[in-house]
Amino acid sequence: MDITRQGMHETRWGVIRYWVDAAAGPGAPWLVLLPGLTADHRLFEDQLAHFSGRANCLVWDPPAHGASRPFALDFTMDDMARMLAGILDAEGVAHPVLVGQSMGGYVSQAFCDLFPGRAVGFASIDSAPLRRRYYPTWEIKALRHTKWMYQMIPWSWLASWGAWGTAVTPPARTQMRQFMEGYTKKEYVELAAFGYRLLADAVEANRAYELGCPALLLCGEHDRAGDVKPFNRRWAKGEGLPLVWVPDAGHNSNVDNPSFVNAQIEGLLERVVSGA
User: Fold this and answer.
1) What is the pTM for the complete model shown?
2) pLDDT band at 1, cuts 50/70/90?
3) d(CA 175, CA 56)
4) What is the domain class of 5-135+208-275 according to CATH?
5) Please, which residues have CB within 8 angstroms of residue 70's CB and are 6 or more apart in sequence?
6) Is 75 helix (H, G, I), strand (E, B) or coil?
7) Domain residues of the chain, as ranges?
8) Mean pLDDT, to the nearest integer, of 174-196?
9) Residues 204 and 103: beta-carbon distance below 8 Å
């Protein structure tokens, strides 16, 4: 979009690049779109197009992803949340609605923990809770030992598996394949393994946070990424959060079925605006 402006945020690990569409104006709500592990800002192309002029939008290439490279892999989930806060401060985004897909949903929860009351809404897309009580010990340990598995898989197989494992529609699979082909095998394996360790560390922090804002859990009916579906069932029940299954969608459900997901985000925005 020609109205989108690119920004840069310098950190001690590297430079984060992000994009802003503020066409909706100063009185409109802000959607902050946070892609998942190994994906970049293109994951939210359909949401950016749909909400342009309806809500102000900010999307980043997460640290060490896409154009936010090179980036040292020695930060924490809380560091990511603080980096996000620094970007929002620079752009004057006081009270965002966070929309996090997979890893982006974890970053959103860390943000709510570190900056209570700042987020006014949260949409989780194919993500899971950060609370320790939802995780068996064996699963946390397994998150720390994924590198060897990825290293043993030929790159052509890994790229195909990644595309088919995260999406069910041809456009979404093609996009995921493009994300993966933006890395060498070594880069991808290092980033994926680091991301899982990052998550394990964040869960084991055993934080006692509250989201403190209206929230919505979205999960693809055909999400085959780990235990995301049972996690969402337990999360919804344990926290009393609304859970909506996205039809005809896998782990990247906002790309598989963007019209359905966009309508759900619109509903969350309506709740936020009416509550304000």
Assistant:
1) 0.96
2) very low
3) 24
4) alpha beta
5) 14
6) coil
7) 5-135+208-275
8) 95
9) no
